[in-house]
Each structure stands twice: as structure tokens, then as C-alpha cells.
Design the sequence.
């Protein structure tokens, strides 16, 4: 016997930071919010992942859950100094004043698992409904709404669905929305290293062009609450697996950090630069809205992933609220259409910004000459050092409807 479906006005798929942000935004609009999550409530996910929370993201959190942004800022780390080196020689350094005690900082840096913990607490306090162990395996949409089926055989229906189910989004794939873009041939190794209390490091963001201790590879060091994120840009021909584990991993870590840190690795992985955006941010019936990595994939440099996913989620919740508030189908569809156009425009900006950063990090001969000339002239011209410091993260312009703060 077929079980009757559970019906909700709107369902969010995915309980990561983007999905929970969507749920909080719905509750702030006095809409009920139900979240379907494939994993268990206490699931453990490896790695610090999205460590950098922009002030614009904190502002979204604060609007949807007063006090949440302050909690995240207090838990996270705000470093005040950034340095850039070229072939071992410092070419830029700047120290900023500490944030005002009563104001939100420009950013806060903490492991994503901690951000998710605060979001989950806020969601529960706001009355968000969660269905855990509810992997979506089938999705269909029509002019009146969306039907979802889980692996356990439960059926859910909703007027609208906000898909926040990540890069392998079951909702996006089931509804036939494709993604377009490119993947760089170059590899990076990313490592989480726990802070060593016997050898504490200054809380500074440090970028090395052509680090001499690791064969001229680029290295990025970013502190976060409790540890360090270390990115190593590999040369063509390097084996990313070999350099991300065992003795080879510890060897290059000892070259860029004090020796004790090589034995404090919490997580290591590899990645390639992605510049991928969904061809549409909603299904053809304008009943399913795609957000976060269900809609776009960017490289970590520039911290564009979660910090564009949260505005996606907030905009999706607003569009659904408008659509549910009107009795005119054309207006409801227009609200979702506006969401799709505006958030895809922001995603395309971030895609292009990631491409600019990639061209800088993997320069051709002409660009490499420009880098070398800037490094030589940085001591006499601060503008050259500033360019070397900011260029690895892409343009400093802000995308439509979003704010980017570069680390």
C-alpha cells in the first residue's frame, strides 16, 4: 500500500549551511520550514571546509536570526595582518585595526562544522522541522508543485522546493538542469593543521609566490579558530595523491611551518579550480530553486562558495515567500524568475572572478614577467605590492546583490 505524502508549503533539501540559511530566512518571514537531509543529525564531515565567513554573510544571518552573527564572530578568529612573499622576500604587509567591539567584523574565520552547529541551534530555536536520514532519490515537478521521494520510501509534496543539496544535487539532476563551465588541469593540496600550543604562530594570512622551500610552489596559509588552512599549488607533473598523505605531506609541511605542525594534520585533500554554473537556477515550472553548490561550484580562493550560497538561500526564501503570498500565478512565477536571473548573474560574476584568479596563479610567460617585475618594484611602489597581495583571489569588485571580502 502506498503511503500518503507529507505535504508542506515549502521544503528545503539539504542541511548544510546554505540549506539551514534558507530555513532561517523562511522562518524570519513567518513561513514554516522543513528540511530533508540525507545524513544523520550527528554526522561527522571531515575538514574545516568553508572557514571564511564574510560580513555580508554575517549580516544575512543576523537578519534571519538576531544574535547569530555575534555568536559566530565571537567564536571565530579575526586576523588583522596579511603578508605576501615572492620567492622568499616579503613584497607586501598590512595590519588593520581591530574591529569595533559593537560592530560586526569584516569577516570571521572558523571551521564550517562550527558554523553549522550554530545554524542548527538557531534553526531549532526558530521551529524549523528536520527530517534526517531522508535522502532524496526521486523528484518530479509540475505547474502546481514538487513531489519528492526518499530512499526510505517516504513521499513529500510542496508548492516550492529550495534545493541546497550540494554539488551532486539529486534535485537538480532529477529535474534535468545542467551545469556548464570548466575545470583547471592544475592541482592543489589543502590541509587542516591544528594549532600547536607550544609553537603558536602569529594569526596572520600569508601568501607565498614561488616558495623557495617547496620548489617554487605557491603556498597560502590562513588561520582559523583552532588551526590553520594550508594550500599548496602543485607543479604540472606533481602527484597530488602522493603530496597529500604520509611522509611526503609531512615533508613539505615542515618546510612551510614549524616542524611540530607536520604531526598535527587533521585533514588533507586535493582539488582543482572549478568554474561551473547551472544553466538555470530554477526548474522549468519555476517550482524548484537551486542554491549554493547545487547551483554553482567555485575554487576556494576568494571564499566565494558558502558566501554566495547564503545570499542564494536568502533570495530563494524571499522569492518563495512572495510566490506563496500572491494568488496570481504569473506574479508567483515572476518572483522565482527574478531569483533565478539575479542569483545566476552573481554566480557568473564569481565564475569569471575565479577565472581571473586562476590566470594569475597559473601565469603564462607574459604574466609571469609582469609578476616578477612587480615583485622587484614592490619595495618602492606600494601599489605593486598591493596588486600582488590581492590578485590571487580575483577582482575586488562585488557581484550583483552580494559582497566579497578577500583574504
Sequence:
Amino acid at each position: 500500500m502506498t503511503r500518503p505524502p507529507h505535504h508542506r508549503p515549502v521544503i528545503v533539501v539539504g542541511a548544510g549551511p546554505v540549506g539551514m540559511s534558507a530555513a532561517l530566512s523562511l522562518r524570519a518571514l513567518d513561513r514554516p520550514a522543513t528540511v530533508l537531509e540525507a545524513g544523520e543529525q550527528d554526522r561527522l564531515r571531515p575538514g574545516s571546509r568553508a572557514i571564511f565567513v564574510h560580513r555580508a554573510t554575517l549580516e544575512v544571518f543576523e537578519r534571519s536570526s538576531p544574535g547569530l552573527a555575534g555568536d559566530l564572530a565571537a567564536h571565530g578568529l579575526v586576523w588583522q595582518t596579511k603578508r605576501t612573499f615572492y620567492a622568499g622576500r616579503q613584497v607586501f604587509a598590512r595590519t588593520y585595526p581591530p574591529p569595533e567591539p559593537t560592530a560586526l567584523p569584516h569577516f570571521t574565520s572558523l571551521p564550517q562544522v562550527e558554523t553549522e552547529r550554530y545554524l542548527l541551534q538557531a534553526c531549532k530555536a526558530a521551529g524549523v522541522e528536520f527530517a534526517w536520514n531522508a535522502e532524496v532519490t526521486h523528484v518530479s515537478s509540475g505547474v502546481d508543485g514538487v513531489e519528492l521521494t526518499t530512499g526510505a520510501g517516504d513521499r513529500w509534496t510542496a508548492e516550492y522546493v529550495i534545493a541546497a543539496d550540494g554539488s551532486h544535487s539529486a534535485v537538480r539532476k532529477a529535474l534535468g538542469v545542467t551545469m556548464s563551465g570548466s575545470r583547471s588541469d592544475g592541482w592543489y593540496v589543502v590541509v587542516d593543521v591544528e594549532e600547536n600550543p607550544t609553537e603558536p604562530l602569529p594569526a596572520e594570512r600569508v601568501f607565498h609566490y614561488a616558495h623557495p622551500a617547496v620548489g617554487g610552489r605557491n603556498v597560502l596559509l590562513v588561520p582559523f579558530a583552532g588551526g590553520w588552512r594550508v594550500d599548496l599549488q602543485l607543479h604540472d607533473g606533481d602527484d597530488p595523491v602522493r603530496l597529500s598523505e604520509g611522509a611526503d605531506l609531512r615533508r613539505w609541511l615542515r618546510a612551510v611551518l614549524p616542524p611540530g605542525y607536520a604531526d598535527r594534520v587533521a585533514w588533507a585533500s586535493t582539488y582543482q579550480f572549478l568554474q561551473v554554473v547551472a544553466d538555470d537556477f530554477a526548474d522549468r515550472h519555476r517550482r524548484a530553486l537551486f542554491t549554493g553548490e547545487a547551483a554553482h561550484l567555485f575554487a576556494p580562493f576568494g571564499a566565494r562558495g558558502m558566501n554566495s550560497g547564503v545570499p542564494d538561500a536568502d533570495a530563494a526564501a524571499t522569492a518563495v515567500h512572495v510566490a506563496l503570498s500572491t494568488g496570481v500565478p504569473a506574479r508567483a512565477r515572476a518572483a522565482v524568475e527574478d531569483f533565478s536571473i539575479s542569483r545566476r548573474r552573481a554566480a557568473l560574476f564569481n565564475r569569471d572572478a575565479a577565472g581571473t584568479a586562476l590566470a594569475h596563479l597559473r601565469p603564462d610567460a607574459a604574466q609571469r614577467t609582469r609578476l616578477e617585475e612587480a615583485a622587484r618594484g614592490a619595495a618602492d611602489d606600494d601599489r605593486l605590492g598591493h596588486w600582488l597581495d590581492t590578485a590571487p583571489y580575483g577582482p575586488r569588485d562585488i557581484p550583483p546583490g552580494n559582497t566579497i571580502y578577500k583574504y
In short: The first helix runs from residue 17 to 28. Residues 403-407 have pLDDT under 50 and may be disordered. The chain has three domains: 6-78+108-181+274-357, 188-271, 363-393.
